[in-house]
């Protein structure tokens, strides 16, 4: 993608904190996170239309929720390593 004058458009790196997917007091459930991701996409779309964009995100709260669930089932062999929970939430947020 080149600008009309032949120059490369500005490269913008956007880091969205994981807490941006659920506001304080909101549940950290799928509908809330999906709605928040859509809201962010609408706000970022104009910038993406005129720039090259790299979008990255955090996942701390999401890992915490999965870790609590994994800990609750640890006695039945359900304990999942943190790196697996991290990868699982990264994929989930990327899917949003």
Note the run of SSEs as H and E.
Answer: EHEHH
Structural class: alpha+beta
Radius of gyration of CA atoms, rounded to a whole number:
17 Å
Biggest sheet layout: 2 strands, parallel
- Proportion of residues in extended strands: 5-15%
3D architecture notes:
The chain has 96 residues and is α+β, with helices and mostly antiparallel strands. It has one domain (11-95). Helices cover 50% and strands 12% of the residues. It is built from 3 helices and 2 strands, in the order E-H-E-H-H. Strands 1-2 form a two-stranded parallel sheet. Helix 1 (30-50) links the parallel strand 1 (11-16) and strand 2 (52-57). Helix 2 crosses helix 3 (82-95). The longest helix has 21 residues, at 30-50. The chain is elongated. The mean pLDDT is 86.
Quick synopsis:
The protein has 96 residues and is of the alpha+beta class. The chain is built from three helices and two strands. The model has no long low-confidence stretch (mean pLDDT 86).
Strand and helix layout:
Elements: E1 11-16, H1 30-50, E2 52-57, H2 60-72, H3 82-95
Parallel strand pairs: 1-2
What attributes does this structure have?
single chain, 96 residues, alpha+beta, two-stranded parallel sheet, 3 helices, 2 strands, 50% helix
């Amino acid at each position: 993608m080149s600008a009309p004058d032949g120059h490369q458009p500005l490269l913008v790196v956007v880091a969205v904190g994981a807490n941006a997917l659920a506001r304080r007091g909101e549940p950290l459930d799928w509908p809330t996170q999906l709605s928040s991701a859509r809201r962010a996409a609408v706000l970022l779309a104009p910038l993406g239309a005129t720039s090259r964009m790299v979008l990255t995100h955090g996942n701390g709260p999401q890992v915490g929720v999965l870790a609590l669930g994994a800990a609750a089932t640890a006695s039945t062999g359900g304990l999942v390593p943190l790196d697996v929970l991290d990868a699982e939430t990264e994929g989930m947020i990327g899917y949003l």
